[in-house]
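@channel sequence for tomorrow's demo:
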Amino acid sequence: MIGMSADDAALLSPSLSLYREIDRDDWARLAAGMAQPLSETEIVQIRGLGDRLDMDEVSQVYLPLSRLLSLYAKSTKRLGAETSAFLGDADSTTPFVVAVAGSVAVGKSTIARLLRELMSRWPDTPRVELVTTDGFLYPNAELERRGIMDRKGFPESYDRRALVSFLTEVKSGAPEVRAPFYSHMRYDIVPDAHTTVRRPDVVIVEGLNVLQPPPAPREVAVSDLFDFSVYVDADPAHITQWYVDRFMALKSGAFANPSSFFNVFSHLSDEEAVKTALGYWNDINLPNLMENVLPTRHRASLVLQKAADHKVERVLLRKL
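structure tokens (generated this afternoon):
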């Protein structure tokens, strides 16, 4: 993949045996005998702008992935119960936390929503909650105060301590934990609005920078609180095109809403809109991808590698 360092290539190389490398056909065969639980209408509702998610992709890629995650969650819960029994304590097993990481426009939000629906259909994980790290962005007013509004999405634009605190409560077994709510329409945190997590079987955390190491050696990394992590990977050139395509779709859709923060873009010509999208991509999102997001890929438990058509062509699963 473009942008892969020599060290990263070595980590992902099957010859070093850190990952099981599974091509699309072999991975799809894992779905044999699994019933497709989602209707075509449900898949359309889950699908994000620009994603080409269809019944085949769900059945061949994400259904077996959801089963694997459910098995991991079941095994972790069993280990927790056995540990409690060994210690003579009451079972205090906490939610299984799954991270979904990757670039802007790579499709991670769609994958996170899809996994939430699929995992909830397996008997071992009926209660699944989804939290996005957008809720842990600093409010726009605070970003403006710090002079980093143009770096929204970079690690420093997030309240990392609040996110660590939230996940610590989840993994400590708190009966109810609340996360701030972010509105993409307003492009800002909504005051007094929250997403509430009430000790489900699984919590899926989706975000750009969730696999980053801690900023200082003695601090807790967000990734320390995950049980499993998925990195959605693609060639940056493909992601660039997906970003532009999504921007163009939003221009005639969500941006047309007078209440949208981005309503000003709805009146651009197509040529102006492409130029604007590429400006945002090249000035903000691509540097963030190359400097902060892509370098964390090797920390993932599983890597989904997408082709130009958004289809997953290879799966890398870290060996236990």
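heads up for whoever presents: The first strand starts at residue 19 and ends at 23.
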